[in-house]
Design goal:
With 78 residues, the chain is α+β, with helices and mostly antiparallel strands. The protein has one domain (24-78). 19% of the residues lie in helices and 28% in strands. It has one helix and five strands. It has one helix at residues 60-74, and strands at 2-6, 9-13, 26-30, 35-39, 44-45. The two termini are 33 Å apart.
């Protein structure tokens, strides 16, 4: 990041190459004995559908599959 001062105004200039990478909303996390899909926006286990089951107590493979499905569902259609 570069800080430029012009008269009394301070302007921040950020370059995309210095910007932090976007974090995925959903993350596969290890629980005490099993795996879950964590939702960073809701700050807890992801829900498979509104008012549905939580994505917890899963195998790692199940969690990875659910994470991908939830991420794909958020992508806008072209």
């Amino acid at each position: 990041m570069c800080l430029l001062e012009t008269s009394s105004w301070i302007h921040w200039e950020a370059s995309l190459r210095y910007a932090a990478p976007l974090q995925s909303r959903f993350v596969v996390r290890r629980g005490s004995t099993d795996w879950m899909v964590y939702d960073r926006e809701l700050k807890g286990p992801a829900q498979l559908k509104k008012d549905g089951h939580f994505a917890e107590k899963l195998t790692k493979e199940q969690a990875e599959h659910i994470k991908q499905a939830l991420t794909d569902a958020l992508k806008p259609e072209p």
